[in-house]
Known about the structure:
Layout: H1 2-11, H2 18-33, E1 39-43, H3 49-56, E2 64-68, H4 85-95, E3 102-106, H5 114-118, E4 124-129, H6 135-148, E5 149-158, H7 167-177, E6 183-189, E7 192-197, H8 198-211, E8 216-222, E9 225-230, H9 232-235, H10 239-248, H11 253-264
Parallel strand pairs: 1-2, 1-4, 2-3, 4-5, 6-9
Antiparallel strand pairs: 5-7, 6-7, 8-9
Helix pairs in contact: 2-8, 6-7
Amino acid sequence: MGRYSEGGFRRVQGWLEPISAEIIASLCEQQREMGLSGSACEIGVHHGKLLILLHEGTFSKERTIAIDVFEDQHLNTDGSGRGDKAQFLKNLKAWSDRPDFVDVVQSSSLDLRPSDILSKVDRVRIASIDGGHTSQCAEHDLRLVEGAAHDYAVIIVDDVFNATWPDVMVGLSRYCADPTTKFRPFAISPNKLYLARHDYHEAYRAAMRKRWAQYFENDQKMFDHTVGIYGLAATKAPIKTKVKNILKTTPLFPALRAVKRKIAA
């Protein structure tokens, strides 16, 4: 993921906070370290900013499925985003080492069923839902991905707390209010909500807490589940604080801190 994270991420148009990108990349790495296999999936690709990050977090033989209406904007009833297939493919070719391992499906997700995903890729281990922002789309897409997902999958939902798109929360609430559904929230980062089956909550929350302690703010309850809050304050912080938080994630930070203490002494 290094080449894309270091160069391409900033050059691909889209809406993805750097802190959330770091957390998502680390979740992919965690799954790989745990020996968990499966495909990646995104509904609502736009130009590929997050899709490429997810794809670069897969093993060499794992595939990724990209679902978007792209130029069929008459299917984009709420006007959320405007995918560009040609630009997405150009970005994918420029920044992915395995562009041929991405299956592109130009369709409304409302017309798809889990079997349509599984006809293209293996069961999903990490997915992003950022397609239609109506309550119908949000609920349907959660059920769609659940039906194609591994038990240990992580599902990432965009714009749940974005006041511009209140219906996303309505769709999520309907999904979580149904006791027959399986995925529930375990973490929140800037503009992203993370869900997993309850049996995997503790493993994912513990790994995130260890890896991203500098962004951890507190634990809250959501749908009767403990949810870790990460990085929300940092996105509103002054530039100086944002730079410090970024430096904390690099190998240079201990050395810089030692120099600062030496100067202060």
